[in-house]
Automatic annotation (TrEMBL), chain A:
This is 3-oxoacyl-ACP synthase. It comes from Myroides marinus. It comes from the Bacteria.
Automatic annotation (TrEMBL), chain B:
NCBIfam families: PRK09184.1. It comes from the Bacteria. InterPro entries: ACP-like_sf (IPR036736), PP-bd_ACP (IPR009081). Coiled coil: none annotated. Transmembrane segments: none annotated. Residues 1-83 form the Carrier domain. The lineage of its organism: Bacteria, Pseudomonadati, Bacteroidota, Flavobacteriia, Flavobacteriales. This is Acyl carrier protein. Pfam families: PP-binding.
Length: 207, 85
């Protein structure tokens, strides 16, 4: 029988203005507006990080989901022990479109630097890293759908080559108001925890 | 000039997404960067865009920007003297 060295120690979802952790709803906002929901989550959790309000929607989503997974994680800061492995389908397209709108008319050509800086999907990795003082391995994949094989293989590689002790894996998708965060922590295995296997990732993702 | 300063404070709050800061919180001579409002380099670029878009002032010399963006007072003084909109 295969011995699993790693577990899925916790998981979290953010969708439909609801944050769930380990399948339990931990926050529910008013339906229909991600920006209002993100602000309500920030206030309800008494987060003191004004830069949050300058982030684009993708980074806010990554921030909220990562906060939910890292808030009770004890580690020295700065840390290189927690790697970040994110993926999505639409890259930074939501913000790319906003930037595009600001430069489409020659007469009102005023691109916003604050929007432009988010026209790369992996900026959300930087936002999470800065907030939690992570100086660790980080990767952002763009794929049509949540690719369990890819995530499993890459997280295993990071851990088995000692690039980190834990990996925060996440699907962070945001496009024109439709969004989904599914994140989980891969950690050294402890008795009773859910083993880090493709099947278990699939089962948790489908719940 | 007082109206311009109030207008400017409102625009700064809106453009830079300064959540939880009101017009009343910003004093005319508060430093915009560093210990004051704590703005960063991206915010500085946004202020340059704001000057161009709303007041028709194009800033190209970074040294000039350093003195103009010291405070709402210095910004308003410069805008009043150089605006084309």
């Amino acid at each position: 029988m295969e011995q699993h060295k790693y577990s899925i120690s916790k998981w979290c979802t953010v969708s439909d203005e609801t944050v769930s952790r380990l399948d339990q709803v931990v926050f529910e906002g008013e339906k229909g507006d991600f920006a209002a929901f993100a602000k309500a989550y920030y206030k309800a959790n008494e987060i003191d990080y004004p830069k949050f309000f300058k982030m684009d929607a993708l980074s806010k989503l990554a921030f909220i989901g990562s906060e939910c997974l890292l808030m009770d994680e004890e580690f020295e800061k700065p840390s290189s022990d927690i790697a970040l492995l994110f993926s999505n389908a639409s890259s930074s397209l939501d913000t790319d479109l906003k930037h595009c709108e600001s430069i489409v008319e020659k007469e009102s050509f005023y691109p916003s630097p604050a929007v432009f800086v988010y026209t790369l999907a992996n900026i959300c990795l930087a936002e999470v890293s800065i907030k939690h003082k992570l100086q660790s391995e980080n990767t952002f994949f763009v794929s049509p759908r949540f690719d369990i094989d890819l995530m499993y293989a890459q997280a295993s590689y990071i851990l088995e080559t000692n690039r980190a002790k834990q990996v925060l894996c996440a699907w962070v998708e945001y496009l024109e108001g439709t969004y989904q965060f599914f994140g989980y922590m891969v950690s050294p295995y402890k008795q009773g925890e859910v083993e880090h296997t493709r099947e278990n990732i699939k089962n948790i993702y489908k719940r | 000039m007082e109206d311009l300063k109030i207008e400017l404070k409102g625009k700064i709050i809106e453009v830079l997404n300064l959540e939880d800061i009101t017009i009343e919180d910003i004093q005319d001579n508060d430093p915009l960067f560093g210990d004051g409002l704590g703005l960063d380099s991206i915010d500085a670029l946004e202020l340059i865009v704001l000057m161009d878009k709303d007041y028709g002032i194009k800033l190209s010399d970074p040294k000039e920007g350093r003195s103009i963006f010291q405070s709402v007072e210095t910004m308003a003084t410069y805008i009043a003297a150089n605006r084309t909109k």
